[in-house]
UniProtKB/TrEMBL annotation, chain A:
Residues 17-257 form the CO dehydrogenase/acetyl-CoA synthase delta subunit TIM barrel domain. InterPro entries: Ac-CoA_synth_d_su_TIM-brl (IPR016041), ACDS_complex_subunit (IPR051069), Dihydropteroate_synth-like_sf (IPR011005). SUPFAM superfamilies: Dihydropteroate synthetase-like (SSF51717). It comes from the Bacteria. This is Acetyl-CoA decarbonylase/synthase complex subunit delta.
UniProtKB/TrEMBL annotation, chain B:
It comes from Jingyaoa shaoxingensis. Coiled coil: none annotated. This is Acetyl-CoA decarbonylase/synthase complex subunit gamma. Keywords: 4Fe-4S, Iron, Iron-sulfur, Metal-binding. InterPro entries: 4Fe-4S_dom, Ac-CoA_synth_d_su_TIM-brl, ACDS_complex_subunit, Dihydropteroate_synth-like_sf.
TrEMBL record, chain C:
Residues 469-713 form the CO dehydrogenase/acetyl-CoA synthase complex beta subunit C-terminal domain. The gene is cdhC. It comes from Jingyaoa shaoxingensis. PANTHER family: ACETYL-COA DECARBONYLASE_SYNTHASE COMPLEX SUBUNIT BETA 1, PTHR42281. This is CO-methylating acetyl-CoA synthase. Its EC number is 2.3.1.169. InterPro entries: ACS_CODH_B_C, CO_DH/Ac-CoA_synth_bsu, CO_DH/Ac-CoA_synth_bsu_3_sf, CODH_A_N, Prismane-like_a/b-sand, Prismane-like_sf.
Amino acid sequence: MPFTAKSGKFNASIKTVTIGTGDKAITLGGENALPLQSFDAPFANAPKVGIEITDFGMEHEPECIQKYYEGCSTIGEIAKKAASFEGVDFLSFRLEGGDPNGANKSTDELIAMVKEVAEAVDLPLVICGSKNAERDAELLGKAAEAVQGKNALILAAKEENYKTVGAAAGLAYNQVVGAESSVDINLAKQLNVLLSQLGVKPESVVMNVGTAAAGYGYEYVASTMQRVKSAALSQNDAQLQMPIITPVASETWSTKEATQAEADTPEWGDQERRGIDMEVETAAADLACGSDAVILKHPVSVATVSKLIKELV
Amino acid sequence: MALKGLDIFKLSPKKNCKECGSPTCMAFCMKVAQGAADISACPYFSEDAKAQLSEATAPPMKSIKIGTGAEEMVLGGETVMERHEKTFVNKTRYADSLCNCMDEATIEAKLAEVPKVDYDRIGERMYAELIYVNYSAEGSYDYVELVKKAAALGRTLVLGCTDVEVAKAALAVCKDSKPVLNGATPANYADMSAVATEAGVVLGVSGADMNEIYDTVKALEGLGNKNLVIDTTGATVKETFANTVQLRKAAIKDGDRTCGYPSIVNLVKVAKDDLHLQAALAAVFTIKYGSIVVMQEITYSEALPLYGLRQNIFTDPQKPMRVEPGIYALNGADENSICLTTVDFALTYFLVSGELERSGVPVNLIISDAGGLSVLTAWAAGKLSSSSIEKFWKEADIEGKIKNRKLIIPGKVAVLKGEIEAKLPGWEVIIAPREAVELVKFLKDMQANGEA
Amino acid sequence: MTLFDVVFAGNDAVFGMTEKAIDDAIAANGADKAVALPDTAYSLPCYYAVTGTKVGNLGEMKAALGVVKTLMTREKRLNDVFMSGVATALCAEFIETLKYMDGAKPYEAPCYGHLADAVIRELGVPLVTGDIPGVAVILGAAPTAQEGVDLVKSYQAQGILVTLVGGIIDQCEELGYKTGANVRVIPLGKDVTSVIHVVSVAIRAALIFGNIQPGDAAGLMKYTMERVPAFVNAFAPLNEVIVACGAGAIALGFPVITNDQPTVDAVNGRVPKSLIVQEDISKFNATSLEARDIKIKITNIDIPVAFASAFEGEIIRRGDMQVEFDGSRVDCFELVQTKEASEIEDHKIEVIGPDIDTFEVGSKHSIGYVVEVAGKSMQTDFESVFERKFHSYLNCVEGLMHTGQRDMIRIRISKDTFNAGFRAKHIGEVLYAKVKNEFAAVVDKCQVKVYTDAEKCTELRHNLAIPVFDKRDERLTSMTDESVDVYYSCIMCQAFSPSHVCVVTPERLGLCGAVSWLDAKATNELDPQGPCQIITKEKVIDERIGEYEDVNEAVRKFSQGALEDVSLYSIIEKPMTSCGCFECICGIEPLSNGVCIANREYAGMTPIGMTFSELASMTGGGVQTPGFMGHGKHFIASKKFMKAEGGVARIVWMPKELKETVAERLNETAKELYGIENFTDMIGDETVAEDPETLLAFLEEKGHPALTMEPMM
């Protein structure tokens, strides 16, 4: 008697959202099966992998990242280099220096960099904010204006600033709007509803439902993503059918596992290897729970996760 | 649909005799419904009732015990597909691997490496609990010898061996430690089952595809062997993933008991030598249904995030993880360093300690018992209050251990400032920002002003 | 002259002017001569938006004028007025466009004339977000330049975008008042037709931000009406053309406020609320905001000390205290009252009685403050919800300590805070700012009266406050599940109990004990996308257990399908689920045919054979567990408490402490339902029994009603 697997195909599906323009444009979403379960129903679009650079260039990066960017001095060169690594589907530029509690760089300075990055590469762009909602309201609006016509993903509008970021990115400058909420399915849904009430089209919204490094309260991330996907597919909840993007690098590369020097904990062994494993394991978990795209930093991580996706989907 | 406690109670003897160990029949029946007690513990249920209930209350996936003593562990026994529905009960176990195809130097090096990863993370010992000892007909190293050496590590073994005679010989030297014999195939299952049964060990079943596996398990069940695990490893990563997910789904969703066994996923087979890919896959199979995940290497690099992930995934969604109350001296803090307190909810601890570490400012992080709740929840539930802090200060003798008298409290419970100052005379209470991310600047500013 | 006559005449005049201008232009340049407004992709924006047709040359413009003519119907219905208004606006756009022919620059500083798309995108974002709360269009010259400038300044201070047309521009220049896009005061032009440039802003905002398709005139007007918070201030005297333009504004949803009483009287304004006379120029601002329903965010609380949650826990000791108000000794109270909008002058703070600086250091006094609010969506039920927040608002003031509520409040003000200049009116400032901001969804206007006059406090406490409190309590106790039309869901706990949904009814508050029906209602009104959603209960399935089709549907939806159906009043059949926050759990004790209740604080054993935490582990997590249910303490005395199984008479055991807490109300309920006096005396507790047999003996001795009720199972 043969084994008969019941189909896990759903009638509902995740909405598709395209980022970027031209040949290099990527499309997220479209699947009508649970994460990575392409054996239930073929995935219209496999999950995508992005590489992250920041306005600090190589200034804050660990040695093991810096070595890949040797010879790059401008942000444009760094962006070009980042785009050249194997497995990179899109480029994410994080405006880390915008944080008023950090470097608090000027808007003009940061926007000039956004433009430089946008000119340097033809990959789809994701512009990430400074983590400070108030500053991002201004910064991401200007960034959306600066990359007009690029169909970039502006990451992200949060509950505190969704109106400004949503109106600028989604309405005024026709970019894709990231909707960031903090590991709670209801907050995720609420933000999507609010964005749609604002007039942002659902097909221009990508969610970031929260992120954590493996081991750091990851259960909340896992359950939130799984519940979102399940509500989107089995309940046909249109307000949760937006694809999910998860920034991984910014979480994992600040954990002890990735930052502790080998000299401090010799038994832990090579720091670079640890950093990569932290990054790929977290990214793999995200993909297994429902991310349609992940943002990584180490070129080896990008290649590994890209291979993982090819092997699975 | 599992039976409700009340349905079971209706069939119970309603004697409140306490012989089952529960004070009342109602309490016992509720436990049975939860799977926390077995119906056979009650001597008075009628045979009819028992038969009626045992089918309905039997878990969809068997719980399989392996290992002995402190190394005894349970595999499987899961009742849901995703952890938010109900707790994943038996965590994924990771196996480091050896093979008789390795040369002696490699084997010795590995044997020396394995014990190195052994540490504590929030009260849980983290180490490679299993050693997968693979047998290859082409291997030149003596398999039984290898098994002996592996067994000497004190970890539970999984013998990957499809040769009945070799398996028998290997079991002869290690069966008392209750290893898994992962060796049944459509070709040898009857003989292999006899070997496993005789040795009293769990048998692993593999096959070319799910159909073969399914038929072999059926056949083994027919032989009366239900002490099984299923090796879902396929020819490719994709096939392995599909097998593992479909097996779990058939067991849980469709109630197909033939699929209701724990799984073995052998990453060495499908991603040999790509260690990072194996690390990534191990994470995937931790979330998606691997009971045993076999890896080529388990060094700190793979282990640190993986065990952390496992600890996260295999928690009761309603019981938050907690850290031990106590003083955590950060950034080289000593008795003269400023103090900061927060709750024992693990997520809060990780967030706060991470930010504090980033600030580089020496701080004594004092974690008091707040029932494992987050700051606001603990406060609302009365578990974080001036009294709870006062109590902890006495219990832990904070004033005897720390000379500094400045205490930073979470911004969300600023309302406690006055009461704490009243209860801890001599302490100056300082209000932190509401969010942990703002702590870095907050502390750096304090340091710059000479306050910390 | 009627309104029709005036608007039609104005419309005809502008049309005539436009026709002539276009004809002259064609005569001079030929019909193929290109015309366009600069820097816009929507040329000509207004005409394009209304009709879906672009105009690129004079010939097309002439044809477009023909289309405009068709709008100019002359029936005497309101719609004809509006359409003539729109036609007037479109004519104005043509006239203004002609000015830009041959790349001419018809406007020079300070006037802007036509605004580029880029400006609209930039202004549009803060408009959509509400950071620019409104758009004022000021037309004509104020009676005096100072009054005109003061009006402009008042809008500017509120963040409102001000556009100027006509005489007001000269008045600003006359007084040297700074204008320009960077200060959000934009002079458009001196001809009345230049008003089209602000209309064009509104219309392009609809195209860009509202995704309105050109040609969808109805969608366009709906958008401008709902989403573009513009209004017109037109100074007397109004002429026919201005009135016709005004009709266009009203058609787009923009009210017109004017000081020209005679004209309005003459035209017998039949568009109430949209054409408003306000003869006092200083009140133009307030009248306009009210008419357009614009709420200004208060970003700054006007007090001399800091305001932050860090001060919430401050304790002010006697020695540090300047003055104290103590409701336990003298008459004090705090109150929110709903009023008519006309009774309230927004942001008016009155202190009635002596101020703090006349009090001796360390002395004790009476205080009473009444926060009067008005709003279209305000309901008296929200009053207590606001009031309960006063405690945390006032405590956030540096050096101010507030405890208690209603007429049992105590306030201490520290010496430092007093010395910094804090006075009685600042209490009003804090309450005003917080209430206005946090309840903006329902509060349109707010004023505060602070009484420090002892006699007045006594009088108002007894004659005003206490009757209100009594009435509220009365309403709360008299409110039943049957007396309301809807219930509310509460999913605040889903973060850790993913499939749990509380159905909150007047008689069954959330099982955490913290969310009453009124709280849920207020939460819903204030945050319509939030955790509390309306649940209708129209389709009853089973009255006895309280099961409704619509409640089931809601529960299914909010639990993401995890929960199929629930009853409101049964613990055996489809009982409501529990999250984990419940104050109490009740569970069946079969031997005595009743239920035992354990509260969270009780650590001991119950006669069910399980402790609270054991009960909690089987009941929590949003799973239905027949025979067991989490609930709030308050629910114990409810007539709906396990109504399906016979009600509170089923309660056979409770921890002593809990029994004492609920005794009064529970006894009352039992008396009313069954005529039993002192029902709680029949209920066991841990001092009587922790096992079922001893409990049963006790119940038999007391003749507990549960023993003779129908078997529960």
